[in-house]
Amino acid sequence: MVKEEQEESSNRPDNTAFTQQRLPAWQPILSASIVIPMFLLIGAAFIGVGVALFITSRDIQLQELDYTGDDSEHPCFKCRTNTEKCTCSMTFSIPTLFKGPVFFYYGLTNYFQNQRKYGASKDDNQLYGDLNYFTSPSTDCDPYTRDSKNMPIVPCGALANSMFNDTFTLSHTVNGVQKIVPLDGKGIAWWTDYNIKYRNPSITPLINAFNGTKKPTNWPKPIYELDTTDVYNNGFINQDFLVWMRRAALPDFRKLYRRITHDDYAAGLPAGNYTLTIAYNYPVHSFNGKKKVVLSNVSWMGGKNDFLGIAYIVVGSMCVVMSVVMLIVYARFKFAEDV
Amino acid sequence: MGMDFSTLRTLISRYCAGEENCVDTRTVYIGHKEPPPGAEAFIQQRFPDNRIVSSKYTFWNFIPKNMFEQFRRVANFYFLIIFLVQLIIDTPTSPVTSGLPLFFVIIVTAIKQGYEDWLRHKADKAVNQCLVQVVQHGKVSRKHSRKLTVGDVVYVKEDESFPCDLILLSSSRDDGTCYVTTASLDGESSHKTYHAVQETKAYKTEEEVNCIHATIDCEQPQPDLYKFRGNINIYMGNEPVSRSLASQNLLLRGATLKNTEYIYGVAIYTGMETKMALNYQSKSQKRSAVEKSMNAYLVVYLCILISKAVINTALKYVWQADPNRDEPWYNGKTESERQRHVLIRAFTDFLAFMVLFNYIIPVSMYVTVEMQKFLGSYFIMWDDEMFDEELGERAVVNTSDLNEELGQVEYVFTDKTGTLTENNMEFIECCVDGNVYVPDIICNGQVMPGAAGIDMIDTSPGPEAREREELFFRALCLCHTVQVKEEETVDGIKHGIHQGKSSSFYISSSPDEVALVEGMKRLGFTYLRLKDGQMEILNREDEIERFELLEVLTFDSVRRRMSVIVRSSTGELYLFCKGADSSIFPRVVSGKMEQIKARVERNAVEGLRTLCVAYRRLSPEQYEQVCHLLTRAKLEFQDQDKLVAEAYDLIERDLILLGATAVEDRLQEKAADTIESLHKAGMKVWVLTGDKMETAAATCYASKLFRRSTQILELTTKRTEEQSLHDVLFELSRTVLRHYGSMPRDASSGLSSEYIDYGLIIDGATLSAVMRPSQEDSNSGNYKEIFLEICRNCSAVLCCRMAPLQKAQIVKMIKSSKEHPITLAIGDGANDVSMILEAHVGIGIMGKEGRQAVRNSDYAIPKFKHLKKMLLVHGHYYYIRISELVQYFFYKNVCFIFPQFLYQFFCGFSQQPLYDTAYLTLYNISFTSLPILLYSLMEQHINMDILKKEPTLYRDIAKNSLLTWPIFIYWTVLGVYDAIVMFFGAYFLFDNTTFTSNGQMFGNWTFGTLVFTVLVFTVTFKLALDTHYWTWINHFVIWGSLVFFVVFSLLWGGIIWPFLNYQRMYYVFMQMLSSGPAWLSIILLITASLLPDVVKKVFWRALWPTTTERIQSADKLYKGQLSEFTPLAALHPPPRAGDHQRGSGTQRNPQRSDTPNKKVMFTRWQRAPDYRTFTPLLRFTDGSRLSRPGNASSGAGPETSV
């Protein structure tokens, strides 16, 4: 493999630090005298961070409402198997001020958005507004490529077809009067999604681009009419659509539905009684799923998650414990290297 | 008519191509001239032209042939299959992920091989295009070398090399001889004499040569360079003359004409049929032990891979038994999917899981290992300490596959002459009839007398004795194959002393002969030259004596002697014979055998090489008979060798013993030191030599292979004559086992000087008796086992009187014994080639006996002393490096793939990949490849100088100790642990919460990216923790890789890539980095992953430190000045050394000087300076492995073996 060096002028190898493997080098050793202080330091830092995280997490308020209606007592029970339009409402109370900004999530469980074929069942070219793919969508979308009349579906695929379509209104009971809490549907999806990654075809009005195509079979409305209040929040850049299209990592997930940032509620939801009215459309009964609504505020470290703080404290304490054990061993057995 | 007939025959035979292959001789028409009518008609064969093809491929077949060869490798084939599966079925990852790395590897290899082949093509072309001179129609004309055909008469001038294998017809010299050097063939730089046939040597011009009318019958080409048989039929007048041809008539392609103006020769073997081309064949590939472990691990991982795929497939169908899970309303199936048979679906799923997890066996591991070996071998070649100024040679690496095997050697088989010794012979003395002669030693111009008590040449021994003495000197002047080179410059090694007026050198392939002839010169008899078959000698009276050289009975290693038959000027015929004593004495009928034998043995004990000289006066009738025997034997084609040997046997008998000579072969520089180091390193050193026992034993003592305390066990013919082999063997084994039986036996870990140190001497004859398969009783079948048992318990073994093949047999026997130890063979001569090829690692010494050993070796070093650095430093380093490389590769791929396996449980077993395609593809290629590659090239866990000083460190890595199953399992468990931490850490952090302060949620790709980021950092930091030698290069690649990963991720997610049809990674990485909790969790998970390994390391280092770790700490403490302090390095510290060290220790660490620990340690240090024993408070599992040299002297006292 290696050829003999040509015996030219001198056969003597180069005498450099590199060729002689004598490059200057730092030679650290994981000896106890370094590791014990290091562990103590890391341990202390981790416990500190962990406590801070834990306290922050505990301060985050969370209101979770399961509205699946499995229980016959539940107001939504009637809607559970109803195929017609069905509305139910739940009441709940907030004891203290729910500090703003409050985020309004819907949650699904036992729902495999991370299923491989389900996730692949879309046509990225369509979603990028390429009209060529409107008439002949990718076969990735099968069996949601064409409807029974062989018309192409836009947006095609299982992912789009199964878009979550329950809608919610939240009202605050002020002096016995129901006051609708305004919900902000903007800024719920990633900025890059509705500005760069997804595009509508550059045809105005948007409806013309969808000539000769059909809406997904499960959808009550075509994609260009998703938001009746804002014409610019329609088509592929509709934020509800984008939130749905960003697949969840795990089968129990939560997606952002609305933000409560307006008017009187910008500072948060005041204590009081609230009513949640649900337009119950989305079937989860067949796969034993659950649906819920979550109201939450966030801190600098995101939503409520005790795990991170606890994990930090645990790892930090382990470091401290280990350094103590090492110290004991060190004292008892006198490490050879630390004379 | 006759002509036509033969032409017809030729035509017929041409069309019966099938038959011509069966013909075992070929007939060559010199100058393409048909034999005259009436002569026996020969079948004309077709011969290839003189084109040399060393290239493997042509332009057209390169791609298919190269692809075929590459995909024959199991690993490549596996990845090809994975790639094809990805192309055919609907799999989770794009074919790019496995196709890109595979094709990268394939293309890089193809380019490399293509380039190498192109170079070969170029070289071939240069050779084939070069012009040669051919005699055609009485004129010399030029021809391209490749157009040369069999039967062409070629004209070659001085210093040109022969274009094909030629039969010498005539030369510019009157005697029809020419001189040739075969340096480029077998490395022997000596000039060899070749002879033309008597009848043709007179044809000296092109016209004359054109007149030669002859045919040559010879054997079909065979690769043995030194064997050739043939016949030339010369048609002069009516009577064809037939002469035999032998290898001395055959000029080989590649050899160079020297000292001769020109020659004419006829081509008999051309192109690929030349002996040189036939010797091109490649050696069989040797595989290292590490590679074997690697393959074993690979099988384990393949099993893990398959079981993962099976488990997932099975669970998928269990889970899917509920139709709402199999096909929930939101994820319908197509009609064709529904109709597919469940078995087909299951099989497809199985394949898809295989594809998803296939990264656990990374294609890049093979590339990295290859690169590591290839690049690593440069450090061996670059090593300045292995450069020899005298020879101007550096170490050569012929096979880079075995670098790490150098760190695993358990048995070293070494040749003696030229390997342990310098092979620089010096004539010491001769003994004629019991009178000893020492040549004057010229020293600083003064004539030094020989040692007192030895009979000097001046002591006149009487006329009869004087006659015998002169006969002895003449015998030595005549019985040799030495040539005289009469010029100052010789292309080779010079053996020169001034000889009278003109400066001449003696040249011979055997240094002993040169030493003898030179010694004779100093005793007054100077060999001048061989001229016209006359050997000229200048005697003491400055008269020239002439002897006609009649026959040379050449030396061979079986007979171990050579003879010449000469006719003196007075017409007397003598046969002079010289050879090993064992081969001379049985043939001697008279002479002072007792005295000479005694002297020979005395000399042998002193380590001198002895030869006996005898003669026989032949009567003309006897000579006639001799000639008859020889010619008959030489004319024979079949069994020529056997017949010649028989003839020699008949001729060389009834000898009269004249005397004996002694030649010294000095030990090579530092040979003893090297052997001692090898012993300390736990290797068993065997000396295999053809020399006689006494000489070899003396060398062994001198080189410290045997020490004074060594108890020598003999297994020689002498002993087996007295007792039966059976008894001797059993007695020896009892002796050896008695000691080991009472102690807890620690098999084969080498030198145990607490017990008696045994050394074994065995000779070739006994060895073959031991090795002989059982004939009589069933017991003899056990001989081999008993013998091996004895050998295992001996620290040193000397095998003398060995034939080359026996050397290989011994190596093979040890290699295949039940422990399968790693063997290394080292030698310098052609007789060592068989053992060099047989051993796991073959090392050639660039000695004086040519390049044969070097060419056939895996590594070549200039001197024996370089073996120490080769094994103790390079071998050790490469073993450490590659074992980490292999373990780390498996570890990082477990970390990589196991989260993906776990993810299947949370995505409905749908083969959803956790990581993006780019990450899957690049993880092994670029994010984690360079740090480990550079680690495996640069790592030095211990300073080089300490490794050399402390050979016992070599035992730490013996028996493949870093690639044992427990260590492998530890790495795998660590990998699984890290994977679990990473996956579930991310899982709980992602569980129903938002990571951002704007309330937005992350998707599955962010989840995967988070796990992947932790993964890349963790495995890189793990390597950083293992790195002990941080050069700027390590810093550069380790931090550079991480930076590259971050930059790549930013770029990959920062742009809408136009050529991709999905943009799933768009902004994912940035989005993740913009979230505080993500940063916190990355830090947390990396720390949690690394924590157990760090804790384990610290505790192990503290509680059960290996010698390596102790030395590292000590080295650190003394800031690299460790080697200056004897207590660490030497095994017997002087009592004050400890104080000295404490003193310096205090100076260096004044702040610690009051710690009480310190004193305790130093006390221990003083008592037993050994690393394993200096902290007896701690438990040592392995403490007993090392010897306590202090007790060594309690063994048997000095014992002389001879």
Protein described:
Chain A is an alpha+beta fold. Chain A has 2 domains: 31-60 and 299-338; 61-298, no CATH class. In chain A, 26% of the residues lie in helices and 18% in strands. Chain A has a 4-stranded antiparallel beta sheet. In chain A, strands 2-9-5-6 form a 4-stranded antiparallel beta sheet, with no helix packed on it. Mean pLDDT of chain B is 79; it is low at 13-22, 441-460, 488-502, 742-754 and 1122-1202. In chain B, α34 (1004-1026) packs parallel to α37 (1076-1103). Chain B is α+β, with helices and mostly antiparallel strands. Classes of the chains: A alpha+beta (339), B alpha+beta (1202). Chains A and B meet through α1, β4, α2, α6 and β7 of A and α13, β14, α33, α34 and α35 of B.
Task: For the structure shown, list the relevant keywords.
heterodimer; A: 339 residues; alpha+beta; 2 domains; 4-stranded antiparallel sheet; 8 helices; disordered N terminus; B: 1202 residues; 10-stranded mixed sheet; 9-stranded mixed sheet; 45% helix; elongated; disordered C terminus; CDC50/LEM3_fam (chain A); transmembrane helix (chain A); Cell cycle control protein (chain A)
